[in-house]
Amino acid sequence: MQQQRGTCDSTLANYAIHVCELLKRVGDDPTRWDARCLREFIIDGSRTCGWAAAKKRTTAVRMLLRFLVAEGRCASCLDGAIPVLVHRRLSSLPRYLAEDDVERVLASCDPASAVGQRDHAILLLLARLGLRAGDIVRLRLRDIDWKGAWIHVSGKGRRETRLPLTHELGDALVTYLTRGRPQTDTDVVFVRARPPFRRFRSRCAVSVIVDRAFARAGVTRPSRGAVHLLRHSVATAMLRHGASLHDIAALLRHRSVTTTEIYAKVDVTALRTIAQPWPEVPSC
């Protein structure tokens, strides 16, 4: 998965949880597995967790089976026995923050402290460029092109993308790198505020930073996942300021614009222009 598909360590760690559960349930001899036991494992898991977790389980098991089939260690038809879980695409609305709330979160950082300078730079990257928590953890000094005003980001599947380095982002990064970042031999941009000064252990550290900023600003989150909430917010703000779905997809690094279509449902002003009046009901 790492060498051929560019899967990152955190994704493999999530897959390993479900693979270990599978081995405990059906045994570690793939030659004795059958379609019935595999399907029961998937269906039983879907009854006790949400759709996203259940989908991750099916993906992990399917990836394992494809590898075992390629290695000749199990029946070639077993990967087709994994059911596809039904999920209605675009059935929900993306949760997001109002622009004023985003600015309150950004303003909650203390500009006089090293931690505040670091957190402000991180929050700006999340709120302006829609970066993921993993992007923040992996960002290195060489990824910032100061002359060309670009930030090179390696996202899912190790796909590299250039994103614009605006004056606002550049000023925040310069402030942190020259005044707030401690002396360290690591080349990652953001490091821990307490010794040893090294990179964040995982993307959970970024989530903690965002959670604390929400608490300081007194902003109530409409959903879980504070980091992704800022990602949804920048996409929604772009749409309301006239950006196209293709522009939003380019910034968020979606492989297909169909992934971005969900944001069209939050543009109420544009939707009103195409909505047909309901008989005998006054227009809103």
- The Cα radius of gyration reads 22 Å
CATH class of the largest domain: Mainly Alpha
Can you give the mean pLDDT? 86
> What is the domain tally?
2
Strand content: under 5%
Q: Classify the secondary structure makeup into a structural class.
A: mainly alpha
Per DSSP E runs of 2 or more residues, the count of β-strands stands at 3
Nutshell version of this structure?
The chain is mainly alpha-helical and 284 residues long.
Structural features, described:
The protein has a 3-stranded antiparallel beta sheet with strand order 1-2-3, with no helix packed on it. It contains 12 helices and 3 strands. The chain is globular, with a radius of gyration of 22 Å. It has 284 residues and is mostly helical. α2 packs across α4, α5 crosses α9 (204-217) and α6 (114-129) packs antiparallel against α8. It has helices spanning 2-5, 9-26, 35-46, 51-70, 99-107, 114-129, 133-138, 167-180, 204-217, 226-240, 245-252, 268-272; strands spanning 144-145, 150-154, 160-164. The chain has 2 domains: 2-81, no CATH class; 99-268, Intergrase catalytic core (hpI Integrase, Chain A, Orthogonal Bundle). The mean pLDDT is 86.
